[in-house]
Structure formats: structure tokens, C-alpha cells
Amino acid sequence: MSWTRLAWAVVAVLGVPLALCAYVYAVESGLQSLAPRRRGQWRPWLWLAPGVALLAVFLVFPVLHTLVLSLLSADSTRFVGLANYAHIFTTRSMLVVLRNNLLWLALFPAATVSLGLTIAILTDRVRYQWLVKASVFVPMAISLVAAGVIWKFMYQYQPPDAPQTGTVNALLSALIPGFRPRAWLFDTSLNNVALVLVLVWMWVGLAMVILYAALQGIDEGLIEAARIEGASEAQILLRVILPLMMPTVIVVGTTLVITVLKVFDVVYVMTNGSLGTDVIANRMYKEMFNYNDFGRASAFATLLLVAIMPVMLINIRRFGRKGDAR
Question: Taking the model in full, what pTM does it have?
């Protein structure tokens, strides 16, 4: 068995590059027989052909196949039309899943962008800014699964008369007199917000770095001119800095929206969707691997794709406008 894997590894490492080189050589050799004008017309398409073929096989076909599966029964033997979608939008437990995703969508991008922007502005030109930025950015080096495990211990609950082993309850008990420890992951009024905070902790560093770069790109002359005109620091922030940073804020926000729509790891590790914390990606996983319902799992996947596509198109259009401006 090991020799078979080794052979496939050799094919992957050496065979694919060699095949591409042979393809390029064949294309260029064939183009030499064409007129120069024809050669210029065909060369881009022939060079793009392998990439287009890979996209078709590994992206377009799976999307179409998933769409077809979402219209079939659990075992993919009967056509059921939109029954899987109707189940998602009419069943109470499924509506809770959709509600949770909307909650994540409302809280996570706003909190992450706001905190990242605040940290970027407050630490600008401070001597110890490197320490603050490094501390905030460190969670990005941790995998989402590891972050879920860490925060599961941090949210750990012990009865009020017992020593608090969870960092959050221990810290709040020390800082707030009379604070009663909370079961953060078991309290249905708090557990979704507690999960959102974990992802905010993970991503606020990246938002801060990007927004800080945008802040550094603002012309100092504009800020000095505003000060000379008598504008206060608050007015400069609201009327000069934020409007100039708004394109970057929008790009970061839309990226975070795409991220939160696909949230899975944190929920799977910390609660596995129990106690009203399930989200679309985690439910899709359950339908596929726990319940063997390929129809509903594909319907959830299609909903995710439909939800993400408009945000991706907004980003693509913005990048296209920037390219045209240049």
C-alpha cells in the first residue's frame, strides 16, 4: 500500500508539471503553423484552457451536481423538487439554524470591523503600538479548531460556591463584586453571542492590520489642513479619516460577511449545534454525515452559495472599478 501511495505522490509531483510543460510545448509548436494574426488570437485561449478545464471539473461541475442533488430525495433516488428547501424554511429547528446565521451576520462583521478600526486608530503613532498590534494579531496564528478548544475551557462553568476554573467566570468574579458565574455555552440567551465573540477574537487582528494600512495611506496634508481650518480631532475622524477609509472598511466588511456565512469549526468544536446554536454549515455536515440525507445537505450548500454570491460580486465589482481607475 505504501508503494502505491509513493507512486501516486511521484505522479503528482513530477507528472503534472511535466504534462503542463508538454502541453505548452505542443501549443507553441502548433501555433507556429498559423498566421501571426491567428496566432495572437488563439494563444490566450489555449494557455487558459488547462485552468478553465480544472475550474470546470473541480468547481462548476460540483456546483451543478450539488444543485441537482438538492432536488432529489435523501438517497438521491427520487425527484422531490423543492421539498428539501420547503423543509428548511418551514421546520422550526431549521428556522432556528437560519436565525442563528442571521445573528452571526449581524454581530460578527460589525463587531470585528469596529474593534479593528478602533484599535488601529487608538494605537496609531503610539510607542508601544507594535506590542498591542502583535497581541491582537496573535490569534490569527491559531487554527479555528484550537481556538474552539481554548475558549471551551475559558467558558467553563463551576457552581458559585466552587473555585472557578474557567477564565471568563474567574476574571469577572474577581472584577465585579457579587457576580454569579454563568454557564456561557449552556445558557440559551448567551451561548450564541459567546460563540460569536470567539470568532471576533480570531479575526479582529486581521481587520486591524488592513485598516491600519489604509489609515497610513491617508495624506497627512489633508489632516493638517483640517486642523488649520479649526476642525477638532473628532471632526477630523468623522469627516476626513473615516470617509477616506470607507472603501477599505467595505472590503473588510464584505470579506467578514463571507467568512461568517461559512462559520463551522467554532460551532462544531464548542457545542456541535446543541442548545440552539446550530448554523447552516454545521447543519449541512450533520445532514450529510450523521443522517445520510444528501438532498437536505445539498439544499443547505446551495443556500450558502446563493447567500455568498452577491457579496462576492460586490467585491469583484469594487476591485474592477479600482482597476479601471488606475
Answer: 0.86
